[in-house]
Structures are given as C-alpha cells and as structure tokens.
Amino acid sequence: MKYEFKGITGEEISFKLNRVKLNPEDKLDIKPQFSRQVRKVNGNEKLNFVALSVKIESTEAEPKPFDVNVTIVGIFEAEDIKDDSDERRFVIEATKLIYPYLRAAVTNLTASAYIAPLNLPVISGPIFPEDRDRYAFSVGGDNLN
Questions:
Q1: In this predicted model, what pLDDT tens digit does every residue of 12-21 receive, in sequence order?
Q2: Is 48 helix (H, G, I), strand (E, B) or coil?
Q3: Which of 93, 8, 87, 99 is nearest to 49 (CA)?
Q4: Residue 54 belongs to a domain with what CATH number?
C-alpha cells in the first residue's frame, strides 16, 4: 500500500460566542466530539478525501462559553490497496496526518475570536474506538508508507 498526501482544505470553520454565565467554582468541561468521513472519487479509485471534524456545542445541561465546528479535508492518492486491512491502515494513517491540522485550526479560530486559545490534546494513538484494535496490532514498527 502506498499513498501520497496531495493537499488539505478547510471545509467548515465556525465559531459562536455564547453568553453563558459560569460560576467561578464550576469546572468547565469542553468535551470535543470527533467524527471522520472517507470518500472516494467516482471514476478515480486512487483519489480519496478524508474529512476530520471536531464539534463543541453548548447545551442547556452542559453550557459552554462557545460553539466550534471545524472540518478539515485531506486529499490523498492511494495505490495498491488490496483488501479491507490495507484500507483500514490507510484511513488510520490519513487521520494521524490530518489531526495536527485540525488541532491548529481550532487553536487559530479561538485565538482569532479574542478568547483564550483552545488547544486540543496531542494524540499519539487512534482518536476513534474502531481504530484501536488495528492500531495496537500495527504499532510494532510496521512501516505503513
């Protein structure tokens, strides 16, 4: 399996300030929600789009000082994907490559809104539960490129 990173784009980047009154003793729990979507181009099976999103939304039960919705799309050309295992490895690696861009977009967005910048955590392993079994299996020095 081989893949080449062709580029990245911001598909959606939004910020909304919420006028939430928090008590000083209240602990703020941001709880970002991550999602991912993988799309192939009809007529060109080599071209793949991997969209990685993070959403932070205020609710009545869990008020937050702001709402954030960011989707970053990585464009990849992949070859020699022979089976579901290769496909899974590609998606995990593409996610790992795109995540720092998503992280930077959230930090820049919140800083541009003149609030304390939100820094998503550095993640060295898989973000999504469905990737954890595959990741644990491939950590032993498997060269995925």
A1: 999 999 988 8
A2: strand
A3: 8
A4: 3.10.420.10
Question: Is 143 contained in some domain?
Answer: no
In-domain check, residue 111: yes
Could you tell me which residues come within 8 angstroms of residue 20 by beta carbon, excluding any fewer than 6 positions away? 58, 63, 64, 65
Whether residue 37 is contained in a domain is answered as yes
**Residues near 2 by beta carbon (within 8 Å), at least 6 away in sequence:** 78, 79, 80, 145
- Please determine, for residue 80, whether its predicted confidence score (pLDDT) is greater than 80: yes
Task: Using the structure block, give the residue that is written with the tokens 């809104």.
Answer: 113
**SS3 labels along 69-110:** EEEEEEEEEEECCCCHHHHHHHHHHHHHHHHHHHHHHHHHHH
User: Is residue 18 included in any domain, yes or no?
Assistant: yes
- The neighbouring-strand residues paired with 35 are 53
Domain count, the chain: 1
> What's the pLDDT at 134?
59
